[in-house]
Structure prediction request, 643 residues.
Amino acid sequence: MPAAVRVRADGSPLFDLPPELSIDTDVARRVIGEFIRGQLRQAGFERAVLGLSGGVDSGLVAFLVAEAIGPERLHCVLLPYRTSSPASRSDAESVVAVLGCSSELVNVSPMVDGYFGPGGGTDAAGPGGAAVDALRRGNFTARMRMAVLYDRSVTWGGLVVGTGNKTESLIGYTTLFGDSACAFNPIGDLYKSQVRQLAAAIGVPEPVITKAPSADLWPGQTDEGDAGFSYPQLDRLLFWRIDKRRSVEEVVAMGFDPAFVARVDRMIAGAEFKRQVPPIAKLGPRTAGVDYLYPRRRPGSTRS
Amino acid sequence: MVETRRIALAQIAPRLGALDQNLGRHHELIDAARAAGADLVVFPELGLTGYQLQDLAAEVAMRLDDPRLATLAGRTRGLSAVVSFVEESADHRLFIAAALLEDGELRHIHRKLFLPTYGLFDERRFFAAGDVLRATPSRLGVGVGLAVCEDFWHLPVAELLALDGAQILINVSSSPGRDLAATNEVGLGTATSWRTIMRTFAQLTTSFVVFVNRVGVEESISFWGGSEVIGPTGELVFGAPLFDEGLFVGDIVLDDIRRERIALPLLRDERPELLGRELARVIAERAGLAPDSTAEPGSQDGLDVAPELPPGRPIGFASPPDPLRRRRRAAGPRSVKPA
Prediction:
């Protein structure tokens, strides 16, 4: 039975959910809850840490982790850069307030500016000087956040939980060894539209669900503005191309614009490397990931 | 007197690679099943070892004369148990095996026949496929047939076991839950597919189907449980919830088999000799030992239909030509071949 849809005061839906993407949110919460508990238990951990941006992805993961292991075992780290939107911070704080979990704020500006030099992209003091564009700075910032989270993983004694969704992973809208770095990811097989559906079902505050998704790398930036298409539209295309194995001809016949399909196909292929462990040159008789194949966690691998 | 049998479904979450720990759990649950008055307790596929073993498979493998198996069998006085583990043969092949233990002895072994090696599965890389499919007598008073997970995704398995005398078909599984869509009956595509198969096999073989699927998480995979017992009419007798670990007990009425097999004598009407004859033909044809008698001349392998319709005799029969087929062909479009 489809779950009830949360609506706005005027009765309109909170977000656009293409019908083929609709999931049973009760089953999803059950599976993800067991997954989170299983990952922690197999690794010998009882706690988790994650970076909370104020967006729906990390907000949902915080709710899922709190539901799975209790909010007292979750530590959320807010990691703003000096140009980050104040609204992001207040949205993140609203998630922490609802959950009642532990949290802290780590300003990553000194780390980023210490490398590039202060003064934004026009400062010539740092490496690259004036050529420091928003993309370089954004990637660097994402990797500084990763470094903080892995340090807090030690001090908090918890595993770093990933917060990337399937849509951004498929099109490569992630930073390698940055936001994609984690011990495990509970929502990496959910499209953005499904993240919103699950977020609404589990009780993530409404403004977090409905605001325009943004990497918050510069003021006013939005994912959909960067990419030039909407998430529901993109999610539908990815669902039919990837999950349902439909050919280009078939999705075009369904009404998708051929130029849009071609562009998304290129993005998927171009991001293949971000989704895989780097290859090791095969030299010896037994090589990790090639012909030395063990589960990540097995007897003896639990932290003691 | 109504003859009933009490069945316990051990829907457990084995620990990956932790053979001793899993053996301990089996000992406990066999005792618990006996205490609950069960005649049969069934554990899931690789319940003694966990599923995603990869290179661990050789490290947890047991020979059939392994003392740990003998000890486990020794625990089954007064009841039957189906357990599953990695079996190493004398020539060092590794099998995914299910064993029937009864009254202290290992009575029957089934080696998984079909090893899925596609999509999220990689079994053929690590395991050998079994070559034998046999029903077996049991202390339950009727024949039983063992199958492991993917074995049930192949049509002949249930039919052969029933024809061989099984009246209770037991499938032990480690089925990964996936296809999480709101349109499915229980929100999980895998569960819907399995339920369709179990009901169909139970009805078509007019036998009980006992399905035990594990729960728990390994790597990316969540196993969905949902173990069930289906009656010979294809209806649910009792079942376990999705994802919950536990020992779930219920009764079956053996007379249901007789009632259904008399009302719906499908098994009586099976034609194994027809099946055997046609299969022998198909095997020879696929091996290239005989021409494909049901294909048009010039057709591609496995398609049976030629790109162009040749004139000549109908397919598969020497004579006489079928007038209807001729007329249909004559009316259809036809390209002209240069001489």
Summary: The longest strand of chain A covers residues 47-51. The radius of gyration of chain A is 20 Å.
